[in-house]
Amino acid sequence: MDYLNQSIDSLHEQLVNKEITSEELTKETLQRIHSKEDKLNAFVTINDDATKDAAKVDADGIKGRLSGIPIAVKDNILTKGMLTTASSKILSNFMPIYSATVFEKLNQAGAINLGKTNLDEFAMGSSTETSYYGTSHNAWDHTKVPGGSSGGSATTVATGDAIAALGTDTGGSIRQPSSFNGIFGIKPTYGRVSRWGVVAFSSSLDEVGVMSKRVEDSAEVLQTIAGHDDHDATTSEREVTDWRANLNKDMHGIKIAVPKEFWHEGTDPKVLKTIDEALDTYKKLGATVEEISLPTLKHAVEVYYVIASSEASSNLQRYDGVRYGYRAKDVKNIKQLFVNSRSEGFGDEVKRRIMLGTFALSAGAYDAYFKKAAQVRTIFINELNDVLSKYDLIAGPVTTSTAFGIGEKIDDPLAMYMNDILTIPANLAGLPAASVPAGLADGMPVGLQLMAKQFDEQSIFNAAYALQEENKFYQQIPTALKEED
Amino acid sequence: MISKDEVLHVAELANLKFKDDEIDGFVSQLDKIVTIASNLSTVDTEGIEPTYHMGDTKTVFRPDKGIHTQTREEMLENVPETQDNLIKVPTIVDKEDDE
Fold first, then answer.
1. Any idea where the Amidase domain is (chain A) (predicted)?
2. A383 partner at 20 to 30 Å CA-CA among A178, B10, B19, B76?
3. Beta strands in A242-311 (DSSP E)
């Protein structure tokens, strides 16, 4: 059976009508994942017990729309009794004793956990190359990065193996790999989804979201995991919208703002051409598209790396070799235990961020770096909110290029950081944002980015759905996959 | 410019250490990043409130009653070394070698 081009809806119907069982579906999915894992390295842990979980769901009877549907989970989301490493040596032996709220919610909905997908160590990176478990590979071209940090989730969805996957997004970690792999990926509003049980990176920026080939499938999964959580005081008490049922592809009267700074000379003209074509599609469908300016965008990378690294340096203090995780051997005293466990347990990129953050928060640097970045953040938030008070959506490219080659940028941290300039704004302002497949440039996928007002995920889903119904990108089979078959 | 001494001081604060052959590379990388971050000084932020956290900042209240979370045994499952149901760590005060 091939469900590469099927939606959750269509699989649900077949499950309900007993044309297929969740056990068959899960078994087939696991076989496909295993057959490609040598080439993709999408997973840190593959859950071979998933077929048993599926058989249990079959026995209990298919209920809601996610019941019996296999889904992959990024390996920085805690899964009770299943290794959760955040792709770091320091957590390489960590067996959670509780599950993240988002995972519990998927469980309650009857979804089947396929396993834990690879990421950049602690989600710090844009290529999965900082993973302790080695890089994952792009679904379209295995010599290229899948993007990051949710690279494993992106590549397994793009190959059509996992129908959907959970990711996290602190500065673009869902949208950039979605763009690089030609799938849909959404980071919701800050506070829309619980982060309880999600390995903390930068607490004022981190969000959990969803990746899938089809817009409606992400809507379904996101509304399942969204909502208030007593365990996470930053979650909103607002009702969760039934985004999926409310999907509306009518673009008449929708106002789209296009920041001229996104059409930067450093951005690949072929990427921009694909984005221009997507915007033309929206005009054809009745939307208005107008150019606006975000002058503070030029400081976004600086603001982001100061704030994200400062928060990371604080959050990652907990890894000390005492209560869980990697513990250094042959130490003489407690200080050496801390220093050696951390120095042996963290990779270079994580150390770089901890160092930058510790510096930015240190006496003498705090006002000039951390406080200053927080003030510029306020200016930028006001700029974005001002635009969104006049427009329904902000649109532009997700990335400045298509997927780059493995090894191409890893030795130049600054070049890697600059990759994030177009995705960072939504995190700094806590806005919902998505990458929508727009087309190909030189045979590699290009994502259109859509941002909306806080808690207006519906506008993003609607516009994404409108574009999807025009270009049907989900029907495309990644080039590398075609060559193998 | 960020100096090697500053980097070593920050490493001390962060409970990290670097091998001698790593440190120079790290100093130059960190220096480049900090130089870029220094561009922030060109932005006029007079009178602008900093944004330190996001979301609704209202205090959340709940009844003050205990709930069951994890047992002691569960809490100790991931501890690298235990003894008598306690977390075991090396000497905290070491007079001989207090590196």
1. 24-460
2. A178
3. 255-259, 288-292
Q: Across the interface, do A234 and B55 touch by the CB < 8 Å criterion? A: yes
Taking 50 as the threshold, does the pLDDT of residue A29 lie above it?
Answer: yes
pLDDT grade for A99, boundaries at 50, 70 and 90: very high
The number of helices, as runs of H, and strands, as runs of E, in chain B is 3, 2
Question: Do residue A306 and residue B7 have CB atoms under 8 angstroms apart?
Answer: no
Taken in order A31, A33, A38, A44, is the CA torsion positive or negative? negative
- Which residue of chain B is at minimal alpha-carbon distance from A378? B51
Q: Which CATH number fits domain B1-42: 1.10.150, 1.10.20, 3.30.565, 2.60.120?
A: 1.10.20
CATH architecture, range A8-252+433-484: Alpha-Beta Complex (3.90)
Closest partner residue to A299 (CB to CB) among B2, B30, B40 is: B40
Between CA A155 and CA A162, with CA A157 as vertex, the angle to 5 degrees is 125
Catalytic residue among A87, A126, A173, A202: A173
Residue boundaries of the structural domains of chain B: 1-42
| ipTM field | 0.92
Domain ranges of chain A: 8-252+433-484
